[in-house]
Amino acid sequence: MQTSEFLVSAPGKVILHGEHSVVHGKVALAVSVNLRTHLRLQATSSGDVRINLPNIDTFLSWEITALQPLLAGCKEQDGLKEPDADLLKRLREFTGISDDSTDTRSMAVLAFLYMYLTVFAGSLASITVSVWSELPTGAGLGSSAAYNVCLSAALLSARGTISSPLTPQLESARWRKEELELINRWAFMGEKIIHGNPSGVDNAVGTWGGFLRYHAGNITPLSWVPILRILLTNTKVPRSTKVLVSGVKDKINKFPSIMNPVLESISAVSVTCEQTLTEMAAHGPSADYYNILEELIDINQHHLNVMGVGHSSLDTLCRVTLARGLHSKLTGAGGGGCGITLLRPETDTSMIQSTIEELKACGFDCWETSIGAPGVQQHSSAALSQDILKILNSY
Ligand SMILES: Nc1ncnc2c1ncn2[C@@H]1O[C@H](COP(=O)(O)OP(=O)(O)OP(=O)(O)O)[C@@H](O)[C@H]1O
Ligand SMILES: C[C@@](O)(CCO)CC(=O)[O-]
Ligand SMILES: [Mg+2]
């Protein structure tokens, strides 16, 4: 390893429209948010691999000599299509993590060990990885994808598979397009381990940043969209994306003739939203356009309830905001977690403040977010705040 320390970060995301239906090949619109996951990788000489995950109170280490035998008989990664089932099985046995586990710590450890072993397969290196995130864990803002994108970028750079784009003159830097594609593909592997059946939209936003249209693996950046103001509410109701995604699949299998038209309709909502945003960018963001965006939010929220991924806490969010003329929907996998509320340009500050207060009184966290943050980056320590450095350096 040429460099002894790597600092990287990746953003979380909100899905405007298309969660769940995107898993079944439909269109989704998603945008990065200004909350990031930060990772520090250090080369060490301890002969151990160590992971520190303070958000989930997990601090573990393994001797390299104990990990090495897990790689016996491993094939070359088959074009990074599917995780190696044999290696995963051995890893589950080694860590004592069962097949049906959705436990936060188990999933984070499994994704880390899998990515570490496959990236460093030829020569396992002694490293310490510390991750700390500003994103709520498991709340619909793409915390798993930001985690996987950071792991992928740092491990691939440390291994020398991709470059280390930071030069002494820069505080932050991004990789070349082909390298970002590789980061995204490895992060998708991590998502497969955590989610079971991810669409790839979340890791695409974590890698590329900005506003994206995602359709069956095709990523189209939308650079011309108008600036939208969004209120984010975390209901703090815990949920697992893996469980919710598999519940939707069961429903589609049980009632295909009922559920497939719902998926089609959600796709049409995404397409209509994209058209509306294009027209807003060209003609100015008039009230008529906002009325359309609000109706699309309401339609999609009803569809998501039909798919079984609503929650009474999200109903409360919709009711409280609608009483003030504001429209909300869940974002991400639903079942609790976060919702978004569209703010109109004329929505006045005191009304936003009173909405936030009322949502907080319901036990929720609520704040106005800024969207369109950059994708994965490598940083010098000068680029990071003292608070973040203190956390990452304390292990
Ligand atoms: N900061 C973190 N440290 C360690 N593990 C994390 C961290 N953030 C996320 N994870 C892993 O990701 C899992 C959460 O992923 P999950 O997909 O269920 O939620 P999400 O990504 O926040 O929401 P969504 O997928 O709906 O956007 C956690 O259980 C944990 O394994
Ligand atoms: C629910 C889902 O559509 C979005 C989770 O943020 C799952 C996925 O796309 O992988
Ligand atoms: Mg996730």
TrEMBL record:
One of its GO terms (cellular component) is cytosol. It catalyses: (R)-mevalonate + ATP = (R)-5-phosphomevalonate + ADP + H(+). GO terms for molecular function: ATP binding; metal ion binding; mevalonate kinase activity. Its EC number is 2.7.1.36. The chain crosses the membrane at residues 111-133. The keyword Kinase applies. GO terms for biological process: cholesterol biosynthetic process; isopentenyl diphosphate biosynthetic process, mevalonate pathway. Pathway: Isoprenoid biosynthesis; isopentenyl diphosphate biosynthesis via mevalonate pathway; isopentenyl diphosphate from (R)-mevalonate: step 1/3. It holds the Pfam family GHMP_kinases_C. Keywords: ATP-binding, Cholesterol biosynthesis, Cholesterol metabolism, Cytoplasm, Kinase, Lipid biosynthesis, Lipid metabolism, Magnesium, Membrane, Metal-binding, Nucleotide-binding, Steroid biosynthesis, Steroid metabolism, Sterol biosynthesis, Sterol metabolism, Transferase, Transmembrane, Transmembrane helix. InterPro entries: GHMP_kinase_C_dom (IPR013750), GHMP_kinase_C_sf (IPR036554), GHMP_kinase_N_dom (IPR006204), GHMP_knse_ATP-bd_CS (IPR006203), Mev_gal_kin (IPR006205), Ribosomal_Su5_D2-typ_SF (IPR020568), Ribsml_uS5_D2-typ_fold_subgr (IPR014721). The keyword Kinase applies. Its main location: cytoplasm. Belongs to the GHMP kinase family. Mevalonate kinase subfamily. This is Mevalonate kinase. It comes from Carassius auratus (Goldfish).
